[in-house]
Amino acid sequence: MKSHRLRNSILVIILLIIVFSIAVLLGAFRSSSIAPQAKQPLSADDMKLLVSKGRELVFAGDCMGCHSQAQGPQGAGGVAIDTPFGTIYSTNITPDKEHGIGNYSRADLHRVLRDGIAPGDRNLYPAMPFVFTHITTPDDIDAIYAYLMSIEPMNVPNKKNTGVFTLPVRPFMNFWTMLNFPDRQVPSEPDRSKVWARGAYLVEGLAHCAACHTPRNFMMGVDFARNLEGGEVDGLDIPNITPEMLAKRGFDVPTLSQYLSTGVAPQGTSFAGMHTVTHFSTSAMEQDDVDAMATYLLTDKNGKILEPSEPPKPLAAAAHPAPDSDMEVGRRIYMAACAGCHGMEGEGVPNVSPSLEGNAIIAMDSARDTIDVVLNGIPTERFTGYKRMYAMPPFSHRLNDDEIADLVTWIRAQWGGQAEAVTVAEVQKQEKALH
To answer: Is the dihedral of CA 137, 277, 208, 193 positive or negative?
Structure first.
């Protein structure tokens, strides 16, 4: 009798799980958060009035950075976003009616940005940062809609995704959103300035800084409990940009604003994914908004804008290395391979190479990004104000693993205040990540 009851109980539980799972797959627990105003179309006059405001918001969201190939038309999509499960390609967001969003209604875009659901009840993958744009106000979404509908339509087909994303997996995103899509609100503190509030709205919303600068869980969901504490993207460690860490790296509001506006600051130049951000997004924004973002990022939990620290001092082992030590080997390699561009004292050359003294990447606890730059180099990059940094060649075929380990160890001890030696295993691990 007891075994019969147990079996029936198990069957009921299994049946309930199946019913629940089917309900989730069908979107029974996905609700719309779009505002009632979105159900009425905007007039032509309203659209014209909103274009200028929408442009600023589109650039704040780095929409063109994600939806434009380096050598392709703006907004036409095709940018590869690699994941462990396959490649997702960004889509055409121009008002082309065949391949873009030309048939989107006002409400359609509201639902995309607020709920992560495209027309036809298609769940979007979280490569589209709807967990951040969710907090965008209805009026601002209207402005974004007006601007996107004003740009030139591009008749460019969307690229097909690869891997698991070729399968009908969109309904399963309903499970992901249940666990990784919190109903976030705009940060609010009654005693903070309007500048801080504007920065909070942009950083935590459209600018989606935490998408890269925050750790993710095993489901690739953003771990908001560790907001802005650093992440991992494309085989690189993404820096911690909490107020305390930014101040430790020597940033104040003017220098952080300068970095965001130009891509160049005493703490280094933007590269890799961050160069996309400064090129397509923050350098194109209004200066007041950039200053607001910098203010928010440097304000601690008590409402205090933190003072910057001095650059790390050279460690004694780097400044006066023992003869024939690994540190001395690293110093000699630097003088032979690097000093010609970066200077004997790491001072850099304007419009040629960045300074290494006070460089925030070199001062990171992890050596991974510095190793990657030495191995892989950096292409020529152009910044605002006709500035540029010339290409740094890769050294993966010029130096062996021991030499790279010694070189990076010395550089980090000399200008990053980092005493821990870089190992050959770390270099080899990053070499594998490049392939």
So the answer is: negative
Q: Would you say 188 and 300 are in contact if contact means Cβ atoms under 8 Å apart?
A: no
Q: For residues 161 and 43, what is the distance between their CA atoms, to the nearest angstrom?
A: 36
**Can you tell me which residue has the tokens 């009908």?**
168
What pLDDT, on a 0 to 100 scale, did the predictor assign at position 434? 61
State how far the Cα of 375 lies from the Cα of 398, in Å rounded to an integer: 9
- Quote the CA–CA distance of 413 and 419 in Å, as a whole number: 6
Angle at 200 between CA 275 and CA 196, to 5 degrees: 110
| Antiparallel, parallel or unpaired: β 231-233 and 264-265 | unpaired
Q: Domains along the chain?
A: 36-156 (1.10.760), 194-297 (1.10.760), 316-433 (1.10.760.10)
Q: What sign for the dihedral angle of Cα 413, 418, 423, 426?
A: negative
**pLDDT tens, 183-225?**
999 999 989 999 999 999 999 999 999 999 999 999 889 999 9
In percent, the amount of the chain with pLDDT more than 90 equals 84
Phi-psi region at 334: left, alpha or beta (left = phi > 0; alpha = psi -120 to 50): alpha
Chain centroid to CA 187: how far? 20
Report percent pLDDT > 70 for the chain. Answer: 99
| 250: Cβ contacts below 8 Å, ≥ 6 apart | 266, 267, 308, 309, 310, 311, 358, 360
Q: What is the C-alpha separation between 152 and 149, in angstroms, rounded?
A: 8
